[in-house]
Design brief:
The chain has 146 residues and is an alpha+beta fold. The protein folds into two domains: 48 residues; 90 residues, no CATH class. The protein is 38% helix and 33% strand. A five-stranded antiparallel beta sheet has the order 3-2-1-4-5.
């Protein structure tokens, strides 16, 4: 993006921007802002549909953990929604597909006790996970399957 802006300034000879150049710069900035604002929604849709048609197998939640996390997002919209540090609860599960395989699923919480209660409620539970038919070492635990 910096290259585009630099080329606009070089093209105009360092003088004032023309109306066309202002429109191009505004569109680039607008698209960048729109992507950053809508990133959570787009990311959620990708995760919701990714792997939904993969075959499923049973998995057992073997390890649960909660970790304190600092927000390190570079996307302004995510930083704004997660201004404060958060707790990441992770479920690590084991399933059988071409041998014993392992995967994990994480969720963010604002409160440590809530994260621990959620994670501990799944310890030892059997869940349905979707496995990649081309690579059985890859799996997804979808939110809808919890």
């Amino acid at each position: 993006m910096n290259l585009l802006i630099a080329s606009i300034f070089i093209h105009s000879g360092g003088g004032p921007l023309t109306g066309h150049e202002v429109i191009v710069v505004s569109l680039v900035v607008g698209i960048g802002l729109l992507v950053s604002i809508c990133w959570d929604t787009v990311d959620g849709l990708i995760k919701r549909f990714y792997g939904r048609n993969w075959p499923t197998v049973s998995a057992i939640v073997d390890i649960v953990s909660v970790a304190y996390m600092e927000d390190d997002s570079l996307i302004p919209a995510q930083k704004a929604s997660l201004d404060n540090p958060y707790y990441q609860a992770t479920l690590t599960y084991i399933y059988q597909s071409s041998g014993e395989q392992m995967g994990d699923y994480s969720r963010r919480f604002g409160d440590k006790d809530e994260a621990e209660a959620w994670a501990n409620s799944y310890k030892g539970e059997t869940l349905k996970v979707h496995i990649d038919p081309r690579d059985p070492t890859r799996s997804i635990l979808r939110e809808e399957d919890l």
